[in-house]
Amino acid sequence: MTHQLSSPDFHGEEKSEQLTSIGQIKPELYRLRQGDQGDGKQGDTCGKISFLLRYAFNTEQLVVKILKALDLPAKDANGFSDPYVKIYLLPDRKKKFQTKVHRKTLNPVFNETFQFGVPLAELHSRKLHFSIYDFDRFSRHDLIGQVVVDNLLDFSEGTGEKPVWRNIVEGTAEKADLGELNFSLCYLPTAGRLTITIIKATNLKAMDLTGFSDPYVKASLVCEGRRLKKRKTSIKKNTLNPTYNEALVFDIPNENIENVSLIIAVMDYDCIGHNEVIGMCRMGSDADGPGREHWTAMLANPRKPIEHWHQLVEVDSVTAWSVCVCVSEHVKINQCVLCVIVYRQCPLYKPNPC
C-alpha cells in the first residue's frame, strides 16, 4: 500500500460541554450579607468568591455550587478579565471541574453546581481548592488567585443554603495542566506496520469560552527532522474527556523503525478559524522519559499492544524536538511546529521543507 507523503499542519486546529446543574436555589440567597464574608482581611486585591456546600449522605457526594465572585483584579488591557474557576478536592488533582468563562467582567455570576464522590469517613482529610483564572485565547491563562477550604466535615451538618464567602488570595501559578492521553503502540516487524490505538484523553485544557473543547488527535511520523506522514482521529465535540478507540496505522519497514519517531498532538477543532494545539507528546528512541520508555517497550514486545498514559506538554516543549536540516548545507533550522515563518529565515528555504 502506497501512502502519499504529507506535511502535517500543526497550526492551531476550536468548542463546549454542558456543566451539570443540580437543582436551583433562591436568588435572594445570592446577596452579600453582613457577616457572610468568611475569613480573611478586608480589601483583598484579588477579590472574593461565594459558594454553597452540602453533603448528600445517601449518595456520599459533596455538592459544591459556585455562585459568583466580586472585585476581581483586571488582567486584560481593557480593564477587565475573562474569569473562570477550576475546582479540585485535594489531595486528588486528577478529577477537576471547571466553570464556563465569563467575558469582560470583574464580578462574574457562575451559578454552576458540581459533585465530588467522597465517603463521609474521608471528608475530614479532604480540602476543597478553588483556582480562579483569566482566560486567554492565545496564551497561557493567568492565575488570578485561589481559595482553600478545609474542615469540610463541618459543612456535612448544614443544609447548604447559606452562601459561604472567602477572600481570594494570590497563589503560585501551576504548571500548565493540559491533560493526559491514553494510547497503545503495536509494531508488526514482518508486515512493517505500526499501529497507534488512541483510546481516550482526560482533563484536557479548555480552549473555548464555554469551558470545553472539540478535541481530536493527530499523529505525525518523523524521520531525521522531516515529517513524512500524518494520521488523525475523528473529532469529539464539547468535551474535555473524549473517548476514541481509533487505530492510526503507519507502514514502516523493519529496517527503518529505529530511525523514526512520532509526534502526537491533541488538537482543538475550529470550524471557522485555525485549529489549535492543546498539548503534545513524543514517542521514539530519542524521546525523553515516558516517550522513550513506551517506544522501547513496544520494540521489545513485537505484535503486542503496549498501552500507556502520557502527560501532554506545551508546544514550546516540543519545538526542541523538531529540528529541520537544510537539504544542501545541513544547516539546522529552529523549526517551530506552529509557524512556517521560521523556515523562511533560512536562505535555502523551500516550500514544505519538512
Descriptive report:
The chain has 354 residues and is mainly β. The chain folds into 3 domains: 44-167, C2 domain (Immunoglobulin-like); 180-320, Sandwich (Immunoglobulin-like), CATH 2.60.40.150; 322-354, no CATH class. It has helices spanning 152-155, 289-300, 315-319; strands at 48-56, 61-70, 83-90, 92-98, 109-117, 127-134, 142-149, 164-167, 180-188, 193-202, 215-223, 226-232, 243-251, 260-268, 276-284, 306-311, 323-325, 332-334. The chain has a 4-stranded antiparallel sheet with strand order 5-2-1-8, with no helix packed on it. Strands 4-3-6-7 form a 4-stranded antiparallel sheet, with no helix packed on it. β11 and β12 (226-232) form a beta hairpin. It is elongated and about 65 Å long. Residues 1-44 and 317-354 have low confidence and may be disordered.
Task: Please give a handful of descriptors for the protein shown.
single chain, 6% helix, Immunoglobulin-like, four-stranded antiparallel sheet, 354 residues, disordered N terminus, mainly beta, 3 domains, disordered C terminus
